[in-house]
Amino acid sequence: MEKIRIHILLVEDSPSDARLLRQIFLHASQEEWQMSHVERLSEAIDASRENSLPTLDNSQIESRRQRRFDLVLLDLSLPDSIGLDTLKEFRVAIPDIPVVVLTGLDDEDLALQALAEGAQDYLVKDQLTIQRLVRAIRYAIERSEIINQLRESEERTRQALAKEQELNELKSNFVAMVSHEFRTPMTTIQTSIDILEYNSDKLTDERKTKYFDRIQNAINQMLQLLDEVLFLSKTEAAKLEYKPAPLNLENFCSELTDIFQLSAGNQYNIIFSSQGEHTQTQMDEDLLNCIFTNLLSNAIKYSPQNSTIRFDLICKDGLATFQVKDQGMGIPLKDQARLFQTFYRASNVGVIQGTGLGLSIVKKCVDLHGGHIQLESEQDIGTTVIVTLPLRSFASRQ
Ligand code: ATP
Ligand code: MG
Questions:
Q1: Which residue's CA is minimally distant from atom 21 of ligand 1?
Q2: Binding site membership of 302 for ligand 1 (Cβ less than 6 Å)
Q3: Which ligand 1 atom is nearest residue 299's CA?
Q4: Residues with CB under 5 A from ligand 2 (ion)
Q5: I want to staple 368 with a disulfide (CB 3.0 to 4.6 A). Which of 24, 72, 242, 374 is the partner?
Q6: Taking the domain 166-236, which CATH number applies?
Q7: Contact 375, 325 (CB under 8 A)
Q8: Domain 245-397 classification at class level
Q9: Which ligand is nearest to the CA of 327?
Q10: What pTM did the predictor assign?
Q11: Cα angle 142-147-151, degrees, rounded to a multiple of 5
């Protein structure tokens, strides 16, 4: 039968008791034991955390792999702790190593209390035999393993439930959002069509164009929402792929700035700047487009007219750092941590329209690049979003 190696930490301040236990271990033939010995509770806690003590007995020390103790044999009367507190303190510090308590002949009550406090078993020192010791240790380890497995499965169930709850919340939020966000543009379309249909002869061409524009905007709004939802469902189903291709970041950012400046007209001043020479890299242009279209749209949407938006690119030390900085309404501190969750919108948005999907999409695109996103914001001062992505050279790809 294969021998099992069990590493035990003996916490015992009496030299004679420690010697006795070591002798007993030496005679336990079925198992192969490794024992470390300390005399104080503080040492026991440190040793269990680090587990780098020298071994005291048995051969083949060199070949032994250091690992956590399988079990602690704990005397309750130590120089730095007495009675049940010894066990309580040890369990708080090291909750997952099974403990067998060592007691004297007249300590039965204390031993029972120790069991109630989480000790796996107790051994009366004066009645120790090899058989008792081995059995107590084996049972204690087995029981503790079962308890740990139960704990883990409880934790897994708890996490699954939390995920389920989160999904349910997401679904109901989604339904509420869709009915609200689709209803508004649909109503706009409906009323515009009614007006065009029933008042066509009374409307000037200019008024008619205005209603057609409204219809067009409402349709665009719905299409954008559909795109976002589709994009998100792809990321949820892990179907969104990261497809890097050669890209010059400086050109990419500069072109995007031009597009935004063109549509913002003279209402916003969008300034792009670039530092660092190596802006040629491998990145997924579609995902980048998604990231910075959302960030620049937010910067414009949540800033007053005539304000300046800065878009900076710094390529340095293998990292591309992009900053989108505005002088807008900012985000209250209490909302900042949740902005990357789907549908979450800050409490100060007022009547500004939005679905709360943009930043969660941005976060997913940044993750797909193996990057990092960070947001700094102060209410009524402005917001800076910093995206850091690893730069991949052509050489590293091949
Ligand atoms: P959409 O899905 O259409 O982008 P949205 O802009 O509301 O809607 P996100 O882009 O995800 O959603 O942003 C989430 C929230 O973060 C916004 O509702 C807003 O409260 C806040 N926010 C994001 N960017 C800024 C910014 N630059 N300035 C102020 N608040 C911002
Ligand atoms: Mg947005």
A1: 346
A2: yes
A3: 27
A4: 298, 358
A5: 242
A6: 1.10.287.130
A7: no
A8: alpha beta
A9: 1
A10: 0.58
A11: 150
